[in-house]
User: What shape does this take?
Amino acid sequence: MSKKKELSPELKAECDAAKALFVSKKNALGLTQASLAEAADISAAAVAMYLNGTNPLNVKFAAVLSRLLDVPVEKFSKRLAKEISGLTSSAERTTASTPGATASDIVRQMLEKQGKSLPEAARKRLLAAAEADDGGGVIELDYYRPGAMGDEVWIAHYDVRAAMGGGQIPHDYPEMFQDVRVSPQHLREMGVEFKEHFHLKMVTGWGQSMAPTIKHRDPLLVDVSVREFVGDGIYMFSWEGHLYIKRLQWIGDDQIKMLSDNDRHPPQTIRADETFIQARVLLVWNAHLV
Assistant: This one.
């Protein structure tokens, strides 16, 4: 097996600069290589290869690192900052040369020509924003920039329907259909308690048995790091092959009471060893703290 070619001094310097920024800010921001890997949707080994200068930085990783560290990309890679800036310039040129084109037409052309290295989620966000803006204006590309509040992060929203009623058969492979940008600091000020923001996900409640606390199709903020009963509260869990969102209450002797928030479904007693908790519900996305 041939030895992997070493990076050029310029590319290695980018990696070193990125690593130095990560090391200097990770404790204050509560970041680890594992959380960085999850945010970038890559392995921890891949993160180590970028930070240690084994592999050159790319647009996708630079975008995630910029957002999590709250620093512009040019702080560690003028090359990638220029590449990202080139996407904006491309959109402006397309606008000038194609006056009749819609915003979404422009973005599609831009992504086809220069956006192949972008993560799929970023491509979808850009296109969705363009489609919403069809009718004029230049699309400003901001996917790599820090959040306006300084600590904003993207929380994935999964197409998982957890039933607040008779139970839903969970999908084997849930598809991410959108994500939500929020400030962890703001969530904590609202009283939402969690350890790491990358444990937070969005899911959709389905059914009526948890009304009025959770209404049919309400988006829910959940903590997927909670995989066992940690006290009375609302959980997402599977039982007898179905996925539920219900209140759980410990009653002893390895038994849990499954409760609805109205009288549509009577309480049930279920065995703890047959109940598989997937997450704890923290917030209904109508600002109803649970």
Summary: The CA atoms of residues 40 and 64 lie 6 Å apart.
